[in-house]
Every structure is written in structure tokens, then in C-alpha cells.
Amino acid sequence: MPYGILITGPLIAFLRSINVSLMDIGFISLATTPWTLKFLWSPLVDRFALKWPDRRRSWVLISQLFLAVTVGGLALFAFRAIGGRLETWHLWLVGVLALIVAFGGATQDIALDAYAVEYLRKEEQGPVSGDRVMYWRVGWLLCSGAAIALSDPLVWNKLGFPAEGNSPWPWVFVGLSLAFLAVVPITLAADPPERPAEPPRTLASAVVDPLREYFGRPMAIAFAAFLILYKFGDNSSASVWIQFLIDHGMPRVEIGIVNKTLGMVGAVGGAMLGGRSINRIGLGRALWIFGLVQGVSSALFGLASVAGGARWAVYLAIAGENFSAGLGTAAQGVLILRLCQKRFAATQFALLSSLFALGRLISGPLAGVSAQYLGYTTHFFLSVVAAVPGLLILQKIAPFQQREVLAAMPESHQAKA
Questions:
Q1: DSSP of 287-301, one letter per residue?
Q2: What's residue 415's pLDDT?
Q3: What is the pLDDT of residue 381?
Q4: Whole-Å CA distances, 330 to 131, 140, 416
Q5: What is the pLDDT of residues 14-27, one digit of tens each?
Q6: What are the residues whose beta carbons fall under 8 Å from the beta carbon of 401, sequence distance 6 or more?
Q7: Could you give the 3-state DSSP secondary structure of residue 202?
Q8: Predicted confidence (pLDDT) per residue in 220-253, tens digit
Q9: 262-305 confidence digits (pLDDT tens)
Q10: At what angle do helices 88-119 and 10-17 cross, to 10 degrees?
Q11: Who's near 164: CB < 8 A, 6+ residues apart?
């Protein structure tokens, strides 16, 4: 949910609604840098932890409490920004707040990903990866759907709470802050891994050994480049989608409702189908099929722009983008799980998922500049082309006719295969 708050959800919609430029919004998206650099402090998560509730969940708990406080800071900013003249230093302030929220969200991801690597058996990775994507998308859609819808004064008026202008925005962020407190009991109720990995003996070993092991593999660089580029086209389109809808006059309440309905169905369907197909068709084939579907989804954005924001085209693009994102992210998640060794879970997963986040980080500012200077239509169709480099690298690590991604398997498994 933190990523959804910052990039494709309420923060972006709020900033655009108070007339922050597309370019400034694009550069504020650089606040997601912690997701790209989280491998820098992931060794601390591997090496240190509280004894309660356990090594992995203690970090999850700390992160959730931290996020409740920092998202509350965005609510205070919204109270200050509404009704007043927006100065340059206000943009710097919201950028810093977003950066702090991103740091908490990235730390939560480090702990949750390490927990998944330790907890899951190999045969569970595909289905559970789909489920994780599904629940992540549910949280994201609550941000880009319900939260944006609740920012519309019309909704508050119909509920019997008169609202003027953008005044509901601060309360939207207050609600999101409280949502992090609401999931704390779920964290405490989760089961620990059957065989918890031993923490590294020293901080130095927690830093060096995971990197040495990964980059000692023959195709380490190819996998790294693939993780950056596989979803580059999809990310490029999604980065300016909310802005496109607002600029074409779609009411915020409708944006929220459509994302929550069509978006939810598409995301859940894609994640469930993708996760449950991987064991049957093989990870290599899944990455190819789902990657091609992602490319087509960017063309749907372009079609909606050509149609001038016509509702049928917008609804088709929302459903298609969410469906393809669910498919692709489920397969990419399984690839990262298989690239990790359990004893280096936090640091290796953080490193690999940081590479995945790097693609999102780069695409945000580029998308803002592209959409502003080339127009939405040209930008969306160029996003289809941006999907091609990832598929070219996929041909190297998992040729089209190959069922599995053999190079991602631990050496002992490759020998058995």
C-alpha cells in the first residue's frame, strides 16, 4: 500500500488536484528511491531483530507503526496546503514526507519478502506469489480507488457530511494512516517459518556474503538487467494514467470507483491465473506469455487516448492494465524467489526487488517529461516499444522454447535436473 499511496494513488491525485505540474509530480516520484536502494540497509534486517514476535515479524511490526505515523504527516501537509498558496518549499516538504513514507514501506517489504523466502516451499511459490500480488493489488486499489473516491466532496455530501473544495483530502490520509494500525493484529497472528534461517554472525558477513554469492553466478548481470526492464513499458504507461484521467475531465469519484471495480477484477484475475499457471506451464513460458500481454496493455492506454478519454476505451484500458500487471508481477515474483538462497533471504531479495523497483523509478520522471512534451497518445504507444528490451534479455536467460528458467535454479538443483 505505501507505493500505491505515493505513485498511482491519493498523493498523485491530490497534487494534481491542487494544480501541481506533471513534471513536478514526475520528479516527486523520485521519492520512491528507497525501494531501489533498500538492499543498502537490508543486511541490518538480516543481522538484527527483536526477539518478539520473531526475527522477521518484528521488523514488519516496527515498519507498520512507523508508516502509521509518517502517513499521518501527509495528512498534516494536506491540511496546510488546502486553501493556501502553494510555494516551492511546500513541494520540497511533500517530497521529503514521501521519501520518509517510502523508507518505511521499503523496510516493511524487506522483512515480508525475507519471511516469504523462509516460509514457502518450492511448490507453494507459484500460487502464493499470485496471492501476494493479489493482496498487494487489493491494497493498491484501495489507495487508487476507495481513497481517491473519498476525496471527492460529492461523496461526503451524499453521506451527510458537507464538504467544500478539496477539504476531504486530509481525512483521506488520516484514514490511510489508521489502516496500517489495523493490520498489526494480522502480523502478530501469522505463523513463524518452519525452519527459520540463522542470522549472520557479523554485520560484515551479512553485507558481503549475499552479494558475493549472487554476483558469482554466470548470468547474474543478465538477470539484473531483465528485472529492471521486464515491466518498463507497463510502468511507463501506468505512471501518468491517473493524470490522463484527471486532465480529460473524469470526476475523481468515478476514477476511484472504476479502479476499484474493473481494476480489482482485472488485478485479482491476473494474479490468480498467473500464480496458478506457473507450475503447469513453467516459469520460462509464463514470463514470455505474460510479458507479451503487458506490451499489449500499453497499447490499450494509447487507444483510450486516441478515443479522447471515451469511457469504453478507458474502462478497457483499466481492466487490461490491471490484468496484465497481475500476470507479469506474479511470474517475476517467483523468479526472484528462486534466485534467492534462504540463508541470504533479506539481502538477496532486497537486492533483486530493488532492481525491479529501479525500472519503476526511472520510468516515473521519464513518463512525466514524455507525456508533457509529446502528449499522452504518443507517450502511451512509445510505452509498447519500451517493453521490447526486457523480452530480448528474456531470450538469453530463458529461450522461447524453454519451459523453465534453469539458470535461476540453485546449483544443486541444476545438477539434479
A1: HHHHHHHHHHHHHHH
A2: 39
A3: 92
A4: 8, 15, 26
A5: 888 777 887 888 78
A6: none
A7: coil
A8: 899 999 999 998 888 888 888 888 888 888 887 7
A9: 877 888 899 889 888 998 899 999 999 999 998 888 889 899 99
A10: 170
A11: 153
Q: Which CATH class is domain 2-416?
A: mainly alpha
**pLDDT above 50 for 67:** yes
Q: Which residue has the cell 488520516?
A: 174
| Cis before 170 (ω within 30) | no
Q: Count Cβ atoms below 10 Å from residue 299 Cβ, excluding itself.
A: 18
Q: What is the mean pLDDT of the chain?
A: 83
Q: What's the rounded Cα separation, in Å, for the pair 71 and 64?
A: 11
Amino acid occupying residue 15: L
pLDDT in tens, 130-139: 888 778 767 7
Residue-by-residue DSSP string for 21-52: -HHHHHHHGGGGHHHHHGGGTHHHHHH---SS
Domain range annotation of the chain: 2-416
* 281 within 8 A of 226, measured Cβ to Cβ: no
What lies within 8 Å, CB to CB, of 272 at 6+ separation is 130, 131, 134, 326
Residues 359, 231: contact at Cβ < 8 Å? yes
